């Protein structure tokens, strides 16, 4: 886990101090910001930081930052992505339906469909409150779109959590001759 403490400081000799549950966690010389890696298994807790600047004869210490509560949660399990009508031969211009399904106990999420290496989804759809899946309608599909598709889902209520992306699905390999 990486944490950064930033101050409005021009003094390159400033020290940044990190605290966890009011106990010193890390410190180091830095210029305008300080980043530390917090390792280990148990990283949960309340963190805050402050900086100190040397002045003639003594050090000036800043007030403590607001605290940040860190709670570790695992990634949501990855969904599956299935082409509807796998045995069908698709023709250019047809619609292709792809279903993205979350594992059990993961109902009512928002699902995103990604194409190729794009980081922005090409389609987004919200599942019903008791539904584990959504079906995306890819209209007017062509052979030129030979990038793999992936999907992911995210929790909408409470703490925002995201799943890993599904395994890739290629649909161009399902196109038959015209």
Give a short summary of the structure:
By secondary structure, this protein is mainly beta. The chain has strands spanning 2-6, 15-20, 23-29, 33-37, 45-55, 58-61, 68-70, 80-83, 96-101, 110-115, 123-126, 133-138, 149-154. It is elongated and about 80 Å long.
What is the end-to-end distance? 53 Å
Gyration radius (Cα, Å) is 25 Å
- The oligomeric state of the chains shown is single chain
Task: Give me the count of strands.
Answer: 13
* Averaged pLDDT: 77
- Largest β sheet strand count, sense and barrel closure: 5 strands, antiparallel
The CATH architecture category of the largest domain equals Sandwich
* Coarse structural class: mainly beta
Give the CA-based shape. Answer: elongated
Return residue spans where pLDDT drops below 50 for at least 5 consecutive residues: none
User: How would you name the CATH homologous superfamily of the largest domain?
Assistant: Immunoglobulins
- How many domains? The number is 2
**CATH top level assignment of the largest domain:** Mainly Beta
**Helix proportion of residues, in percent?**
under 10%
Strand content: 35-45%
Count of DSSP H/I helices = 0
Q: Give me the strand/helix succession.
A: EEEEEEEEEEEEE
What's the CATH topology name of the largest domain?
Immunoglobulin-like
